[in-house]
């Protein structure tokens, strides 16, 4: 391991990265609170400003993937479709097999300039979480309680609110509803058998109601559905801790652009269409596991510098007063202060060893 890799694996570095993310996020949340004054005066200006403020938060996580860990992401897609990415509104269907698949989805958004305006369908509880949850609130993210009888009206209203959104946006959705595990897959396939639906090998049964309502509410606003399937080479099992520790992964993302006109308007027919799509996704996964590549042309979209520049800005802004405070505390000569610093460094040095034996879960 070289010196750079060693430093990236140290708990002290992780602590500083988290400090920058949390403090900058809270500062941005505070600024977002004041933008509410613009809502009754100029709603579109409020939205444009919050897209850029949100980018300052979400791009820090993308920076970890792109620049800190150096993870490669190869896009497999039709070259004609490639030139439309980032220039239209879209619904992005993502598979949910990995701990960092949401981060790869954000990376996909970033490469085409729509990270700041990216939308998701998120659990209501997340709206109360500082930094990310509050950021999403100001981005008019659609929140739900996962009880469709209660959610339908709320979700439809949230989606209708996006019809006059001033920025190009991608609406990211995990139709499976939860991350794939063998236990969940077994239960899901029991449901499929009970409903007389074809069984899937690499996916859970998609939840069709949310997707059908999304298509219904965003029709004539969204141009296409991007069917996206993510895998990692060499059976890599990426984790957020691995990214934070600077571990490099190799992702392959297959994207099919499907014009929205091809998706039925009737809710039941739309549900049937989604089930068929997941059968096709299963076949694509089967082919990938057999050959190690996806169909279509491999393209590596260029990294944009803005995620790194944004992080460097916040790092310089926040680390200087922190280090100044620490130097003043150490120079004071307090025994308690020196003992506290020694404890932090001891814990920081032992953390990677502890993590080696302790499973990490998001």
TrEMBL record:
Involved pathway(s): Lipid metabolism; Phospholipid metabolism; CDP-diacylglycerol biosynthesis; CDP-diacylglycerol from sn-glycerol 3-phosphate: step 2/3
Cellular component annotations (GO), alphabetically ordered: endoplasmic reticulum membrane; mitochondrial outer membrane
Keyword RNA-binding: no
Taxonomic superkingdom: Eukaryota
Keyword Acyltransferase part of the UniProt annotation: yes
Class of this enzyme: transferase
A Pfam short name: Acyltransferase
EC numbers for this chain: 2.3.1.51
Cleavable signal peptide: none
InterPro entries, per the entry: Acyltransf_C, Plipid/glycerol_acylTrfase
Keywords: Acyltransferase, Endoplasmic reticulum, Lipid biosynthesis, Lipid metabolism, Membrane, Phospholipid biosynthesis, Phospholipid metabolism, Transferase, Transmembrane, Transmembrane helix
Compartment(s): Endoplasmic reticulum membrane
Catalytic activity as recorded in UniProt: (4Z,7Z,10Z,13Z,16Z,19Z)-docosahexaenoyl-CoA + 1-(9Z-octadecenoyl)-sn-glycero-3-phosphate = 1-(9Z-octadecenoyl)-2-(4Z,7Z,10Z,13Z,16Z,19Z-docosahexaenoyl)-sn-glycero-3-phosphate + CoA; 1-octadecanoyl-sn-glycero-3-phosphate + (4Z,7Z,10Z,13Z,16Z,19Z)-docosahexaenoyl-CoA = 1-octadecanoyl-2-(4Z,7Z,10Z,13Z,16Z,19Z-docosahexaenoyl)-sn-glycero-3-phosphate + CoA; 1-octadecanoyl-sn-glycero-3-phosphate + (9Z,12Z)-octadecadienoyl-CoA = 1-octadecanoyl-2-(9Z,12Z-octadecadienoyl)-sn-glycero-3-phosphate + CoA; (4Z,7Z,10Z,13Z,16Z,19Z)-docosahexaenoyl-CoA + 1-hexadecanoyl-sn-glycero-3-phosphate = 1-hexadecanoyl-2-(4Z,7Z,10Z,13Z,16Z,19Z-docosahexaenoyl)-sn-glycero-3-phosphate + CoA
Domain Phospholipid/glycerol acyltransferase residues, every copy: 90-212
Role description: Converts 1-acyl-sn-glycerol-3-phosphate (lysophosphatidic acid or LPA) into 1,2-diacyl-sn-glycerol-3-phosphate (phosphatidic acid or PA) by incorporating an acyl moiety at the sn-2 position of the glycerol backbone. Exhibits high acyl-CoA specificity for polyunsaturated fatty acyl-CoA, especially docosahexaenoyl-CoA (22:6-CoA, DHA-CoA).
PANTHER family: 1-ACYL-SN-GLYCEROL-3-PHOSPHATE ACYLTRANSFERASE DELTA, 1-ACYLGLYCEROL-3-PHOSPHATE ACYLTRANSFERASE-RELATED
Protein name: 1-acyl-sn-glycerol-3-phosphate acyltransferase delta
Source taxonomy: Eukaryota, Metazoa, Chordata, Craniata, Vertebrata
